[in-house]
């Protein structure tokens, strides 16, 4: 008959019970403290600090739990730390890219060019910052794609933070025909800006004479809006400009080419040919 007492002594049972108590009690407490730290720092500072604090609390507590369990099991840390040092040196040479990402991540955390929930553009990718981790930054693009960008790349690349400041400017390109009165066009554009529900009155909208185009006079219509309403301004203001110009009879020209020989030159000869009913196709 199998005798369990031959294999498990009273001391071993005590050790197993102690380890189980440590795990059952400490891990739930660790999760509770992590959640509290995240909520506290998110409310008091920003979601970015809340995320960092929760990770710091969790991993620090997890290390304490693991060391405590190893102490109960009678495992000495000295040989493990020595082996970890040797393995760490070997891994350091073998994974220089990862080390570079970690150091770059520390610079990003210290410099804070962006934080969680900011909208940023890196190269050709624009999205909402989901997390800033030790090795990478995670983005969610507006077409719902998940993008992971290594920290080392971000440090070396130009990063544009679209929501760093509370307001943002939208530049609308407006073209009108050469025959139009620019002063009248300017008044209509300012009226459109005043009536737009997302446009700010301060800073004031601006109309900049951009250039004499090949088919039109080009104006730069600049409107300010809260950063959260920037896309709404972009969608509405151009439709309202079109409707206002149609209402007031302002021509928005399409690209065309005019041949002009100059005042001292002879006019270009033009001959109009009329096709008669009896003329066959292809006859001159």
UniProtKB/TrEMBL annotation:
Domain (Mechanosensitive ion channel MscS) ranges: 97-164
* Start and end residues of each Mechanosensitive ion channel MscS C-terminal domain: 173-252
What keyword terms does UniProt attach to this protein? Cell membrane, Membrane, Transmembrane, Transmembrane helix
The Mechanosensitive ion channel transmembrane helices 2/3 domain is annotated at: 55-96
Tell me one Pfam family matched here: MS_channel_1st
Q: Which GO terms describe its cellular component?
A: plasma membrane
An example of a GO molecular function for this protein is: mechanosensitive monoatomic ion channel activity
Subcellular location as annotated: Cell membrane
**Of which family is this protein a member?**
Belongs to the MscS (TC 1.A.23) family.
Q: What is this protein called?
A: Mechanosensitive ion channel
């Amino acid at each position: 008959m199998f005798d369990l007492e031959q294999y498990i002594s009273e001391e071993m049972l005590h050790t197993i019970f102690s380890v189980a108590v440590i795990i059952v009690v400490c891990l739930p407490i660790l999760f509770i403290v992590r959640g509290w730290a995240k909520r506290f720092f998110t409310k008091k500072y920003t979601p970015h600090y809340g995320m960092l604090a929760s990770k710091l609390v969790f991993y620090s507590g997890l290390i304490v739990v693991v060391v405590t369990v190893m102490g109960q099991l009678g495992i000495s840390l000295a040989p493990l730390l020595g082996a970890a040092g040797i393995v760490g040196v070997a891994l350091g040479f073998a994974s220089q890219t990862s080390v570079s990402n970690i150091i770059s991540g520390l610079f990003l955390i210290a410099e804070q060019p962006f934080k969680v929930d900011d909208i940023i553009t890196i190269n050709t990718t624009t999205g909402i910052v989901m997390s800033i981790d030790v090795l990478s930054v995670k983005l969610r693009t507006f077409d719902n794609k998940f993008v992971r960008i290594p920290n080392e790349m971000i440090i070396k690349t130009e990063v544009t933070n679209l929501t760093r400041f509370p307001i943002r400017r939208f530049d609308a390109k407006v073209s009108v025909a050469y025959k139009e009165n620019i002063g009248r066009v300017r008044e209509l554009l300012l009226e459109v800006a005043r009536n737009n529900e997302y446009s700010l009155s301060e800073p004031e909208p601006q109309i900049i004479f951009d250039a004499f185009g090949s088919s039109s006079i080009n104006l730069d219509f600049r409107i300010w809006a809260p950063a959260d309403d920037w896309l709404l301004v972009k969608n509405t203001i151009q439709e309202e400009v079109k409707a206002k110009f149609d209402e007031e009879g302002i021509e928005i020209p399409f690209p065309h080419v005019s041949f002009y020989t100059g005042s001292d030159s002879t006019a270009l000869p033009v001959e109009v040919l009329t096709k008669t009913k009896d003329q066959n196709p292809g006859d001159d």
